[in-house]
Structure formats: C-alpha cells, structure tokens
Amino acid sequence: MSQYHQVASALMDIEAALRQLHLWQSEPPPAEALRSEQPFAVDTLQFEQWLQFIFLPKIRFLVDQEQPLPGQCSIAPMAEESFRGRQLAVTELLAALENIDALLSQ
Prior knowledge:
This protein has five helices and no strands. It has a single domain (3-25, 41-104), classed as Up-down Bundle (de novo design (two linked rop proteins)), CATH 1.20.1440. The chain is mainly α. Helices cover 58% and strands 0% of the residues. Helix 1 runs antiparallel to helix 5 (91-104). The protein has helices at residues 3-20, 31-34, 47-64, 76-83, 91-104.
C-alpha cells in the first residue's frame, strides 16, 4: 500500500474517532479563526477544531493531488496535552494521531 493510501486511511481513522467522541462539528468556525498563524491555531480554535478544519483538509488535499507530504509530524503529543483533564475516552483518537505522526515522519 502506498504512503498516500496509508495516510488517507489514517485520516479516515482520525475523523471516525472525532465523530465517535462527538467532537465533529457540522458548522465551521468563523473564517478569521481559521486564519490563525499560531501552531495548531491555539489562539482561535480548540484542538479538535484544528484537526477537523485545518489539518484534515490540508493533508487530504496533498494526498488527493499526490503532492509531497510533510516530512515530520508530531500531533499526538499536542493532542495528549489538549485532552488532559477532559472527561473523554481519547485512546482511539490518540492511536490514530500516533499513526499519522509515524506515517508522515517516515
């Protein structure tokens, strides 16, 4: 299986985990919130919003266009920090994020 197929599958796993946790939103945040220049848009978005509205679409576009993928990725540690103290069972989401980190850091 090509790296593109593996990454596409991992992106679907992330989306499924977000939906299972009821973190998937039907409406996007305001456009100005999506224009943040901070890492993970920490100044304007919740981490799960960044995943849904910035990370997933950007990586899906690269996969669909077979463009070069990021050479390094370290999202899982940010997720762990973001979800610390929240009453959510995020094990599957963290596993999916660790998988995408590994795939993009090959």
